[in-house]
Design a protein that fits this description.
Blueprint: H1 7-18, H2 21-32, E1 36-37, E2 40-41, H3 54-61, H4 63-70, E3 75-79, E4 82-86, H5 90-105, E5 126-128, E6 131-133, E7 138-140, H6 142-158, H7 163-180, H8 187-198
Antiparallel strand pairs: 1-2, 3-4, 5-6, 6-7
Helix pairs in contact: 1-2, 6-7, 6-8, 7-8
């Protein structure tokens, strides 16, 4: 996705909302200049994924397309190149995917068949950016809870003899998780992991 973003289109999007030619030119130069990473010079195409601005521009890049697609469906969410949509029927969902392919194709982007999943939420649980999605609510996916627990346990073992550092890093990790999952139905499970970790660093 990042390497498919065209710098000219990024600059055009900036000009449409900021009317700041200097900023548009800065971004264009930033995203067309060769970048060296580990001794390798990148091709001057697309947006460099490691750039601090790349995440912002990735979300900004398809702003016009978001409005078009969002008008077609009851629920449409996008973060960078991760899209979640809710439709009233399987046929509506499949039609929406076809339409999305056409719309993002105008930006030179493609939707891989392997990345498309159609889930009937009456029977199964969908997944989106670490959340489980049902017809009733959002919840923290089991694998994300397990990952959070593994990271906290790693901090416990890594900083056994430096509990002040382990405590500080654990607090930062838990705070980030609580902020990200604040609307999840099972947020109490994240709190449970936090309380357990608190006992490791008295």
């Amino acid at each position: 996705y990042f390497y498919s973003m065209q710098p000219d289109a990024v600059a055009e999007q900036v000009l449409r909302v900021t009317d700041d030619p200097a900023l548009a030119m800065y971004l264009w130069l930033r995203f067309t200049s060769p970048v060296e990473a580990d001794g390798v010079i990148s091709p001057a195409a697309g947006v460099w994924p490691g750039d601090p601005l790349s995440g912002l521009m990735a979300n900004f890049y398809l702003a016009d397309e978001d409005r078009l697609i969002g008008a077609m469906l009851p629920v449409y969410l996008r973060y960078s190149d991760d899209i979640c949509l809710l439709a009233e029927s399987r046929s509506q969902a499949e039609d929406a995917v076809t339409r999305i392919r056409e719309i993002v194709g105008r930006r030179g982007l493609t939707v891989k068949d392997s990345s498309v999943q159609v889930v009937d939420l009456r029977k199964d649980v969908g997944a989106y950016l670490g959340f489980g999605v049902t017809l009733r609510d959002l919840h923290v996916a089991d694998e994300r809870l397990a990952r959070l627990q593994r990271r906290l346990e790693w901090l416990r073992d890594e900083y056994m003899w430096r509990p002040d550092v382990g405590r500080r890093k654990s607090i930062a990790l838990v705070r980030g998780a609580l902020a990200y999952y604040r609307n999840a139905r099972n947020l109490n499970e994240v709190l449970g992991l936090a309380r357990e970790a608190a006992g490791w660093f008295p």
